Amino acid sequence: MLKNPIPQVTNKLQYRAIGIINGKFTPHDSEQLNRGFLIDNKGEKIETVVLGKALSLLKKHIDLNKSYYWVVYPKNKNTQNLHLQVAGIWDPYKLNDFPNNSSKTNFSKLLKELELEDNYFSVRGELVFVNTKKKEFVIKICSDSKLKNLKNKNFKLVIKGELSLQLLNCFVSLDINRDGNALKLISYEVIEKDLSENN
Q1: Contact 68/84 with Cβ under 8 angstroms?
Q2: Does residue 175 have a pLDDT over 70?
Q3: I need a labelling partner for 36 at 20 to 30 A (CA). Which of 65, 85, 124, 195 fits?
Q4: Residues 19, 120: contact at Cβ < 8 Å?
């Protein structure tokens, strides 16, 4: 069974921002492996932090000279400045219940079978701001509906692309592609009209 690095949505109004990037992780310091850069296949560097559960995988299984598919959470303040949090490593052989058979060694083919590709992100949240001049918009993501009162649990992502002002306060599901340090809209779907009416 091939494990999908980006799980299926379990709830219609499930907030999330998760993606997959192929690259090498380079820590800032060999003593402190949890902070560094993810360097993609084009040599672009993205500031990266490795979260707890992925850190033990990194220490046990990862050769820092090799490229891997990293499952990441994106954060940004603007479209020039992407920051990633590594949640896991997608390796169908080592880390999944998947027979290591040589006909399946092409990871990008495996990703296509899952309808994914390198630098793909799935973002679901509330559209809270549209800048028509700059052709960008802001999606608010809440980490868990039970934690609504914790301010720092919510964050916003700035995404390049055009969405109609009429979609403000709607809950949208977005397919996003990373281009350098920017997240760019590929396609979107409106899941729920105006959320402000429910609050």
Answers
A1: no
A2: yes
A3: 124
A4: yes
Pick the CATH number of 122-197 from 1.20.1070, 3.40.50, 3.30.450, 2.40.50: 2.40.50
Taking CA atoms, 31 is separated from 24, 34, 67, 120, 180, in Å, by 18, 9, 21, 31, 28
- Residue 108: per-residue pLDDT: 80
Question: What digits encode the pLDDT tens for the residues 39-50?
Answer: 999 999 999 999
Length in residues, the chain? 199
Longest CA–CA separation in the chain, Å: 54
The pLDDT score that the predictor gives to residue 53 is 85
Q: Judge whether 19 and 7 are in contact, CB under 8 Å.
A: no
Rounded CA separation 173/193 (Å): 12
- Residue 3: beta bridge partners? none
Continuous segment of H or E residues that includes residue 112:
helix 107-113
Half-sphere exposure of 69 (CA within 13 A, CB side): 25
- Side chain identity at 53, as an amino acid letter? K
Q: Is beta strand 45-50 parallel, antiparallel or unpaired with respect to 81-90? A: parallel
Pick from 166, 192, 161, 193: nearest CA to 177: 161
CA Rg value for the chain:
17
